[in-house]
Design brief:
Length: 119
């Protein structure tokens, strides 16, 4: 997971690998972001993108996914401004929020790994 700050979009979201709808990897690549969306108001699944633009073909997540066939290669983007809460209000992201999200992300990764082990 490559972690970046984002200056324009709000909330925390992911850029992930691109798979065709008929691929068995299509839903697997979206499972972790969906779990993060359910775990935290700061994460927004609908802001995630699972496409590869021409300008991004040499970025780490794309290279590791295509050249090494690694399914879960993501760029996690966290707004430098704020997030949209469940009432559609913009809330400022604080240092405590980033730390809290890090804890939620670790818990969600464990949940994701448990689900994969059962698969």
């Amino acid at each position: 997971m490559d972690i970046h700050g984002h200056s324009r979009k709000k909330s925390i979201f992911i850029y992930g690998p691109e798979y065709a709808l008929y691929s068995d990897k299509y839903f697997k690549a979206r499972m972790l972001p969906k779990l993060l969306d359910e775990a935290s108001d700061m994460f927004r699944f609908h802001s995630c993108r699972f496409t590869v633009e021409a300008a991004k073909t040499r970025c780490a997540r794309v290279v590791f996914n295509r050249d090494f066939n690694i399914l879960n290669c993501f760029t996690l983007e966290a707004s430098m401004f704020g997030y949209v809460d469940s009432q559609r209000c913009t809330k400022e992201l604080t240092m405590d929020d980033y730390i809290s999200f890090g804890v939620k992300m670790a818990q969600t990764l464990k949940e994701y790994c448990d689900l994969i082990d059962d698969d």
